[in-house]
Specification:
This protein is of the alpha/beta class and about 350 residues long. The chain is about 45% helix and about 15% strand. The protein binds 6-O-phosphono-alpha-D-glucopyranose. The site of 6-O-phosphono-alpha-D-glucopyranose (G6P) has 16 residues, from helix 4.
Length: about 350
């Protein structure tokens, strides 16, 4: 097992560090994706269906498809699909995202959707059930993922979604920009030592909030899910603008807030939420551009990203330090992050 871990103490850590490679390999799928897109009829709406981390990739898909393609886009949890299929019609493309291609809820939803619309599965496992049942299939090239908590497969799913949007929108500029993601990701991974120290500072908190708006909302959700899965600490991902409608009542100096604040449209408004939670005593871990002096000033701890990473592509990079933060808190709390209690890599029951 040590050999399989390639010198890393856990599969999860190895898989986090494999992410630049996973993006690179998935980017090489572009010609397959172009080919699939050339077979598409004119779709009028998109619905994403998935569970868990794959659901968060779907949420990024919604913001991206709406921003780039102007197509109405829904996101439905696979376990809710049978109660919410009403809006699907023959002009819809229903996109299923699944690492394993075997999740029971997702397969059930796929069966229902196949009767009503065209279906596309974005899957990491060759030959899995979802790849046999969907009309179109795109493979993420993350390689096998052993850690129960999804990391590199999430990044590969996102890469596929960005490629799909770029191909559907004939957006050359975005395709070029995506080529730079592996290098940016290597830069972000260099933050690990700082994040490990941060983990030691925060690992005894009992509740966390993760906040973001727009493209950063799914990143906040995924950061909170990683925390719950492998540290057993309660973490809630929240749209920053919703804090004032309830959760603000829970904020005090015992509840750290992780704020995802890349440069762009959502920046100023999320920053005002940072000020709100600070006024109630919260320690804030800020994720933002290296030249964001206001955020640096407001945050107790700052995770700095290259300033070229704009909001639209930030989900591919801003989630990486959050994976590392949960990983190190998990290890420091004496937990095996590869095998969290009560969870399975692939859930084959509804
Ligand atoms: C399980 C795993 C999660 C995963 C989810 C969906 O709960 O523990 O990491 O995100 O299933 O799995 P899928 O294979 O459909 O992406």
């Amino acid at each position: 097992e040590m050999a399989q871990k390639g010198g890393y103490s856990h599969f999860m850590l190895k898989e986090i560090h494999e992410q630049p490679e996973a993006v690179k390999n998935t980017l090489s799928e572009v010609s397959d994706i172009e080919n699939i897109v050339s077979q598409f009829p004119q779709f009028k709406r998109i619905t994403f269906v998935a569970c868990g981390t794959s659901h968060h990739a779907s949420l990024v898909g919604k913001y991206l498809f709406e921003a780039l393609l102007g197509l109405p886009t829904d996101v439905v949890l696979a376990s809710e699909f049978e109660f919410s299929e009403g809006a699907i019609d023959p002009d819809s493309l229903v996109i299923f995202i699944s690492q394993s291609g075997e999740t029971a809820d997702t397969l059930k939803a796929l069966k229902i959707a196949n009767k009503k619309a065209k279906t596309l599965a974005i899957v990491n496992v060759l030959g899995s059930t979802a790849t046999r049942e969907a009309d179109y299939v795109i493979f993420t090239r993350a390689g096998p993922e052993i850690g129960v908590a999804a990391t590199k497969t999430y990044i590969s799913q996102l890469t596929c979604i960005y490629l799909l949007a770029a191909c559907m929108g004939k957006n050359r500029e975005l395709l070029d920009e995506l080529q730079q993601i592996p290098d940016y990701m290597k830069t972000v991974l260099l933050l690990e030592e700082d994040i490990k120290e941060m983990a030691a500072k925060y690992k005894d908190a009992q509740d966390f909030f993760f906040i973001g708006r727009g493209f950063s909302y799914p990143t906040a959700m995924e950061g909170a899910l990683k925390l719950k899965e492998i540290t057993y600490i309660h973490g809630e991902g929240y749209a920053a603008g919703e804090l004032k409608h309830g959760p603000l009542a829970l904020i005090d100096d015992d509840v750290p807030v992780v704020a995802v604040v890349p440069p762009g449209k959502s920046h100023d408004r999320t920053l005002s939420n940072v000020e709100e939670v600070k006024a109630r005593g919260a320690r804030v871990i800020g994720l933002g551009s290296e030249d964001d002096q206001v955020l640096s000033y407001e945050a107790s701890d700052m995770i700095k990203f290259p300033s070229q990473i704009r909001e639209l592509i930030s989900p591919l990079l801003y989630v990486v330090p959050l994976q590392l933060l949960s990983y190190h808190m998990s290890v420091q709390r004496g937990i095996d992050p590869d095998k969290p209690k009560n969870l399975a890599k692939c859930v084959t029951v509804e």
